Amino acid sequence: MSLTLGGGPLGHHPNGAFNFDIDGPRHRIFFEDYPRRMRAILGGETVIDTVRGKLLYESSLPPVLYVPLEDVRQDLLEPTDHTTHCPFKGDAAYWTVRAGGRTAENAIWGYPEPIETAPWLEGYAAAYWDRMDEWYEESERLTVPLRDPYHRVEVRDTDARVTIRARGEVVATSVHPKLLFETSTPPRAYVPLGDVRDDLLVPSDKATVCPYKGTARYWSLRLPSGQVLEDVVWAYDEPHLESAGVQGCVSFLGEGIEVEIDRGTGASEALAA
Question: Which of 69, 63, 68 is nearest to 30 (CA)?
């Protein structure tokens, strides 16, 4: 996924090819301007307010927002004895935030003396996303963690025929599927819910949130054999704009699931999980 995850160019297993030998570290870091106004709120008080943020991209990790220490309310910070070590960045110092009657322990960290290969981290700090009450990008409140600008999702109509099997049992066949293409991940087939054997679907309490697609609800499959495959079917009832094409459709993934995409080219793609 994206620049740093999965098969992305800064991931550990890039999908593409380079025109040079990568003789540097397998773990790579990229530090880039993020020129949007970002604010973090705790207890009704603004802890961070910046237009000088940076995104740190690190192999196999989602991006992290770093901001100049000057753009963090110093009167709300309390240094702690907590520390961690990163072989790629150095020793991190931490601060607890106290604001509006709320306390967020070790919520902000920075590298006062970063290692020589990451000198640009000096003077910057980052905050744990879930230890703040609210985050705003410009004037819009963010309801999901920061999105990677390099990550894209596109949904396309396709003439492919999709067949989905669970432990060999056909559970769905569709000639009107959608294909969802997401950065650095295999294509994902979504089929209309009406093309699924509804006698096998068992509603689940599981829900997940994707910054790029929305909130997914899940079903399990109860096969004629009596075997239950837990939480292997999901749908986005209110997908984000770029994923709107999958509304009314479901996708499948999990142990025992096989998704066959036949595009009529003489070769079918079997995506097993």
Answer: 63
Assigned CATH for 153-272 = 2.170.150.40
Give me the sheet containing 268-272, strands edge to edge: 169-174, 161-166, 257-262, 268-272
Whether 29-141 and 153-272 share one fold: the answer is yes
In whole angstroms, what is the distance from residue 115 CA to residue 128 CA?
22
Query: Residues near 254 by Cβ (< 8 Å), separated by ≥ 6?
Result: 229, 230, 231, 232, 273
pLDDT tens digit string along 182-203? 987 889 999 999 999 999 999 9
Summarize pLDDT for 87-114 with one digit per residue, the tens.
999 999 999 999 999 999 999 999 999 9
Rounded to whole angstroms, how far apart are CA atoms 127 and 76?
13
Main-chain dihedrals φ then ψ at residue 248, nearest 5 degrees: 85, 0
Q: How far apart are CA 147 and CA 34, in angstroms?
A: 12
Question: What Rg value do the Cα atoms of the chain yield, rounded?
Answer: 22
Residues 228 and 222 sit within 8 Å (Cβ to Cβ): yes
DSSP string, 210-249: ETTTEEEEEEEEE-TTS-EEEEEEEEESS--GGGGGGTTE
Rounded to whole angstroms, the Cα distance separating 158 from 156 reads 6
**CATH architecture of the region 29-141:** Beta Complex (2.170)
Q: Using an 8 Å Cβ cutoff, are 126 and 64 in contact?
A: yes
Give CA separation, 271 vs 62, 126, 253, in Å.
25, 38, 9
**pTM for this one?**
0.74
CA distances from 48 to 42, 57, 75, 79, 97 (A): 9, 20, 12, 16, 11
- The domain locations on the chain are 29-141, 153-272
